[in-house]
Amino acid sequence: MKIIILCTTSETYSIQRFQEEDSSVIIFNPYEHGGNEIEHFCTRFNPDEFIIFNRISGIRYDDRDLIFLEQIRERGFKVFGDLKQYRVFRCKWSQYQFYTAHNIPTIKTFNLEDLGKEGHRTNIKTEIHKLQSDSLFCKPKRSNQGKGIVEVKSLKGAVESILDGRYVLQPYIPKEREYRVLMLKNQALGVIEKRALDNEKILNAKSSKISFLEYDQSFQELVAKIPSKISELVNLPFYAIDLIVDPNQGPKVLEVNLCPGFEYFEKSSHINIAHLVMSSLKK
Q: Model confidence over 166-186: pLDDT tens digits?
């Protein structure tokens, strides 16, 4: 079967690499058809010939892509992954609820929408005081590459900095490095380590020193086998697990990234990720 990739732009490194590795790949943007994307899609494609791979991160908050995928799945098209889990893992607050429900260590997270509810503000203030953190991060519930994060010193500062409730609040945890485990059909392809440069508090690939690590026994022990625990619960085709090792409390998951870029992973590991993904999805 041929693969249709859902995305909002074909200009990213990852999409271009997928096209390089499989010239039969078709790109489809459900936002381009003025509300007629279902009719357009079903007229153009045969459900017996294509399978759909979603690469839309959900930062627009409308979940229009997931509604589209639900509707074409009802019309007989095959879609990779659990659409309910796509909703869970594109939001930092629902991710936090998922981790706590399954006893997976993660960073304490507060939903800023709760600040307006009776009694919640006092409870959040009490919990934040217990954490004894020097600063706090206000993070958009849906974002990528560290964009939109605001550092504040208090709950009052968080309230003054945020214009709507689509944010979560987390304590700042000092860290020298983060780890990203790239997963393909719940099998680890390897790890990249991001080391902070110049005391950066927010690590991303562009502002960090990148190293490739094998996903071996010693690394699994370092992160308390958290990726294995998550993979047992997740039904997604291709994703990344971001982790830290807290010097006081041990390893914690930061997030599951539904649409991981892999430019730095390919360049540091010399592994052809695009080929592995395309080949695996066609099996």
A: 889 888 887 788 999 999 999
